[in-house]
Amino acid sequence: MSRVRTRPTREETREKLFQAAAEVFEEQGIGGASIEAIAAAAGLTRGAFYSNFADKDELIIAMLEDHVDRSITASFWPTTARRRTSSPLLASRTATAAIRWAARRSCISS
Asked: For the whole model, what pTM was predicted?
């Protein structure tokens, strides 16, 4: 007999973090958003965050990669594309904000 899984899968945890981060980024901006705020908005602990991402930068990169993957999937296989976020507009705004944030960071650090 197989066990019933009570803990969320890694993919489910990452999806919660993506959705929460998008919402927190929209409210506070990427620079103003803390890992604690993202984890709390997802209903998770900081440990859950750090077991999936090394830092906020890694989360942002993963969100951008996920957004690009979804866009490609939707373009080439529209009938099989899955939308995990509740708002494609929110995902698009988050991606745009992340790109701008990354561009500013690279200009400042250079």
From this structure: 0.67
